[in-house]
Amino acid sequence: MMDWTALRAQFHLPDGVIYLDGNSLGPLPKAVSARVRAVIEDEWGDLLIRGWNSGAGGQGWMTWPTRLGDRIGRLIGAGPGTVTTGDTLSIKVYQALASALHLAGDRRVILSDTGNFPTDLYMAEGLISTIGQGHSLRTVAPEGVEAALSEDVAVLMLTQVDYRTGRMHDMAALTRAAQAKGIVTIWDLAHSAGAHEVDLTAAGADFAVGCTYKYLNAGPGAPAFIYVRKDLQDAVRPALSGWLGHAAPFAFDPAYAPGEGIERMRVGTPPVLQLAALEAALDVWDGIDMAAVRARSLALSDRFAAGVADACPDLTPALAPDVPRGSQISLRHPDGYAIVQALIARGVIGDFRAPDILRFGFTPLFLSEAEVDAAVGILADVMDSGAYRRPEYATRNAVT
Ligand SMILES: *Cc1c(COP(=O)(O)O)cnc(C)c1O
After folding, report:
1. Is position 117 annotated as part of the catalytic site?
2. Sheet with 136-140: strands ordered across
3. 56, 200, 215, 233: which has the fewest C-beta neighbours closer than 10 Å?
4. CATH architecture of 4-30+287-394
5. Distance CA 49, CA 147 (A)
6. How confident is the model at residue 398 (pLDDT cuts 50, 70, 90)?
7. Long-range contacts for 57-64 (Cβ within 8 Å, ≥24 apart)?
């Protein structure tokens, strides 16, 4: 049995807030501040440049990206030496896609779905025009992916859980179906890592990427991660061939030679302060059983969905009840933006995704049943009272 109360106590959660947006920016684990301060003062401050060899608790800052990659690996079913961290998720998508296209040889089609997060699709468009070899991006409805796996597809690039609706793809089945047609697979785990069980090894996925500031709680701008299946690593030709992915960065050889294994997916200088935050955030996950997280995530989100179905008839679920989903509930309403603003004014923080989705994330490490019930009550009040029609809720902020 997981002690959820003790887990919740590890987070700083402001009074008067019910936080249903940990799927977009996870809350602050209390241990992060002290850890980052220690790295700033004791390591950057006193070790200065010696920190590259002796910081990070004596192991050297330079080892941090892949050591933390191994710790993320435990949460996504990836073995040691298959995950490294750094850069942003957009960059990691680009790296994975460039490498996958190279492995895929002569085929020219990148297949994705229309529910994918825009940056993943934008990075594909940018890469296609940079390569200039006639590649194209084909997007189909999420339900149509399996049928669209044809012999002209080079790479299947999907986000496992749709950021908007919460719909979840069957990673193992689609990977198998793709590979049977000679297609290289890339899975974006942005809304999966830390949200539910993932087993990249069992699925046989070729590449995976994800971020650490959502369910993993490593803070705004925290580094992304990239996974490359062990047996592919030596064949991968990095497109972003930075010096820290070189076989011998400090040989300062003018010619590039890729580093060993997953190290070649590193690019430049690691973000040491963000890695310190990530390490403290990952400490929270020690000993956590992802099956228990998934069970509780479904219990909390089912409870919310049932409450809303009873109390808020004007809000339409974005998914049919039998469709597998991640750790979020999405509802549709034409005034979705204003409703979310009215909720935030009452301390219930969710978010809005254009054109009409109200999105609520259920992060079991800190949410309770009582908060879920209170959130349903407040949402019902916002709907019944029509409070969301007040003009101040209609003006859009830059970040929704
Ligand atoms: C959150 C998210 C991103 C964000 O990418 P950044 O480069 O970290 O800003 C990308 N893809 C997906 C699927 C996401 O959910």
Report:
1. yes
2. 83-86, 224-228, 207-211, 184-188, 153-159, 109-113, 136-140
3. 233
4. Alpha-Beta Complex (3.90)
5. 54
6. confident
7. 61/270, 61/272, 61/275, 62/270, 64/270, 64/272, 64/275, 64/279
- CB 304 less than 6 A from any atom of ligand 1: no
Cβ neighbours for 256, distance < 8 A, ≥ 6 positions apart: 241, 246
| CATH architecture label of 63-273 | 3-Layer(aba) Sandwich (3.40)
Instruction: Give the confidence band of 28 by pLDDT, cuts at 50, 70, 90.
Output: very high
Active-site residue identified among 94, 117, 227, 362: 117
Q: Give 230-279 as a DSSP string.
A: GGGGGG---SS--GGGBS-GGG--SS--BPSGGGGG--S---HHHHHHHH
Give the DSSP letter of residue 26. P
Cis peptide bond prior to 355, omega within 30° of 0:
yes
Q: Summarize pLDDT for 33-73 with one digit per residue, the tens.
A: 999 999 999 999 999 999 999 999 899 999 999 999 999 99
Given the residues 94, 207, 213, 393, the one annotated as active site: 213
Instruction: Please determine, for residue 359, whether its predicted confidence score (pLDDT) is greater than 80.
Output: yes
Residue 230 annotated among the catalytic residues of the structure: no
pLDDT of residue 395: 86
CA-nearest of 209, 192, 230 to 85 is 209
Residue 1 has pLDDT above 80, yes or no: no
Residue 98: count of CB within 10 angstroms of its CB = 20
User: pLDDT tens, 121-153?
Assistant: 999 999 999 999 999 999 999 999 999 999 999
Q: What CA–CA distance (Å, rounded) separates 277 from 337?
A: 32
For residues 374-380, average pLDDT: 98
Put simply, whether the predicted model's pTM sits higher than 0.85 gets the answer yes
Residue pair 368/24 in contact (Cβ under 8 Å)? The answer is no
Q: Sketch the domain layout of the chain as residue ranges.
A: 4-30+287-394, 63-273
Q: 285 in ligand 1 pocket by Cβ < 6 Å?
A: no
188: helix, strand or coil: strand
Of 35, 71, 167, 214, catalytic: 214
Count of helices and strands (H, E) across the chain: 12, 15
Whether the CB of 119 sits within 6 Å of ligand 1: yes
